[in-house]
Write a structure and sequence with these properties.
By secondary structure, this protein is an all-alpha fold. Helices cover 68% and strands 2% of the residues. It has helices spanning 2-24, 30-63, 70-79, 83-95, 99-120, 141-145, 148-168, 174-190, and strands spanning 130-131, 138-139. The chain has a two-stranded antiparallel ribbon with strand order 1-2. Strand 1 (130-131) and strand 2 (138-139) form a beta hairpin. Helix 1 packs antiparallel against helix 2 (30-63), helix 4 (83-95) packs antiparallel against helix 5 and helix 7 packs across helix 8. It is globular and about 60 Å long.
Length: 213
């Protein structure tokens, strides 16, 4: 819950800085335009990271209550199974998810961890500018990916997963059930009006479903 709260706080900052960036780009001060992009990027990236860490923390707790077959653990290690697939499998087992629900969860996790990895493991290569979806000019890739719009998509998707599992998850372990009662209460405090609708998965620079990177 602490990481969820941090994600929401940074998201609020990102939205405020998006508004400030909009005003800056109506003017002609190029330094202020660049600074506004930088400020929005910083808050957006922090919101994305906090949301991903919230899921990592939740996964770590669930992992202690799910017994995996030794051969699966070995397979993950030798094949270097992506993080999102491991998290999805642990949650599938912890909450007895059906195939369709697992597939949706895996796709959402894939997009969340994709942006997290861009923040943690950037390539460092000099790349061609990417068209910013709102200001319609070429910018560094980080400004296109880590903007308030995408941060909101990521935060809503990550917290939506936690909300759905806390309110509708079918936990098979009694300790998980007890934990989810406490988590449900905390999330209700953070989302007093209920959780916003989750967007479709796949968050490219423009945030539109089906956008390829």
């Amino acid at each position: 819950p602490t990481w969820v709260e941090l994600a929401l706080r940074h998201l609020d900052d990102a939205k405020a800085r998006r508004a400030a960036r909009y005003i800056a780009w109506l003017g002609t001060d190029e330094q202020e335009k660049a600074a506004a992009l930088e400020r929005e990027f910083e808050s957006s990236m922090q919101a994305v990271m906090a949301a991903a860490i919230a899921l990592d923390a939740f996964y770590s707790i669930m992992q202690t209550h799910v017994k995996l077959p030794p051969q699966l653990v070995t397979q993950w290690r030798t094949k270097r199974t992506p993080r999102h697939s491991q998290v999805a499998e642990i949650l599938r087992r912890a909450f007895q998810l059906k195939p369709k629900g697992t597939a949706v969860l895996r796709q959402e996790l894939k997009e969340i961890y994709r942006l997290r990895n861009l923040a943690v493991h950037p390539s460092g290569k000099i790349e061609a500018p990417i068209l910013h979806p709102e200001i319609k000019v070429g910018v560094e890739w980080r400004f296109a990916y880590f903007c308030a719009h995408n941060a909101e998509l990521i935060v809503n998707a990550a917290t939506g997963i936690l909300w759905e599992l806390a309110h509708r998850g079918n936990a098979r372990d009694s300790q998980i059930k007890d934990y989810m009662v406490a988590l449900r209460q905390r999330l209700s405090e953070l989302f007093p009006s209920g959780h916003p609708l989750k967007p479709a998965a796949d968050f490219g620079p423009d945030g539109r479903k089906g956008h390829s990177v």
